[in-house]
Design brief:
Elements lengths: L8 E6 L2 E6 L5 H15 L7 E5 L7 H15 L4 E2 L9 H9 L3 E3 L4 E5 L7 E4 L2 E5 L7 E4 L3 E7 L2 E4 L9 E6 L3 E4 L2 E3 L11 E6 L2 E6 H4 L12
Parallel strand pairs: 2-3, 3-4, 5-7, 6-8, 7-9, 8-10, 9-11, 10-12, 11-13
Antiparallel strand pairs: 1-2, 12-15, 13-14, 15-16
Helix pairs in contact: 1-2
Length: 228
């Protein structure tokens, strides 16, 4: 006996009805033959049952679906025959507006990575490290238990090493934050100017010092990769 690995028609019970998944590229006669085999087993269960015909989102088969719907109603007295409801997608603009009105809090992952602009009034919180590929506007707040790395312009309030980790660093391609805090050390009068250097802040001699990343290379002291 030959068993088809992928039959053109599949049937399963769903709630008070049945869900038919079929291959619309097959000849209509073949599909009807398979439907007869499946529905004859159901007998009285098919009467007035709700039926969904699912062709997997294929286009241009409205006539086929209508013919099969009429066939099932006439041959097996099924009830309402429909196609799967369209999945609702959230418009991009609504997603952006939703993100503007909220912040992000991550306590599951060790690293929170975000892409895009962090705007004024938004708050970012992470258990450990934060990596942002974008800008941080004035008025935005970022708090992390570990390092904060901004692959863009940093102009907001940042607190790395929360609450008392003084070994954390804050790095940005354009380093001009309005306030910096690392562990318990705070400075808000950096008077940073735009430069062509990648800069980072760290705690040095009981104070916060901003230095050239390439010149100091704060990660160069690590002898091998570490899981953080």
């Amino acid at each position: 006996m030959v068993v088809e690995d992928n039959p053109p028609v599949k049937l399963k019970g769903v709630g008070d009805g049945f869900w038919i998944t079929l291959d619309p590229s097959m000849p209509e006669s073949i599909l009807k033959e398979d439907l007869v085999k499946l529905f004859e087993r159901l007998r009285h269960l098919a009467i007035n049952a709700r039926v969904v015909i699912d062709i997997g989102g294929a286009k241009g088969y409205d006539g086929l679906v209508q013919n099969l719907s009429s066939f099932l109603k006439t041959r097996f007295d099924v009830g309402i025959v429909t196609t799967p409801p369209e999945k609702r997608s959230i418009p991009v603009e609504r997603i952006r507006q939703r993100d503007l009105n909220r912040g992000w809090t991550s306590h599951r992952s060790e690293v929170l990575m975000l892409r895009g602009r962090v705007r004024s009034g938004q708050k970012i919180e992470a258990k450990k490290h934060v990596l942002i590929t974008g800008d941080v506007n004035p008025g935005a707040q970022i708090t992390a238990g570990g390092d904060i790395l901004v692959m863009g312009r940093l102009l907001g309030h940042v607190h790395a090493g929360y609450p008392k980790n003084a070994t954390a660093i804050i790095l940005a391609l354009d380093f001009r934050p309005s306030q910096v805090q690392i562990g318990e050390y705070v400075v808000s009068d950096l008077d940073a100017q735009k430069t062509d250097r990648v800069e980072f802040a760290s705690v040095v001699n009981e104070g916060i010092l901003v230095q050239d990343y390439l010149g100091v290379n704060p990660f160069g002291r690590l002898p091998w990769p570490e899981v953080v």
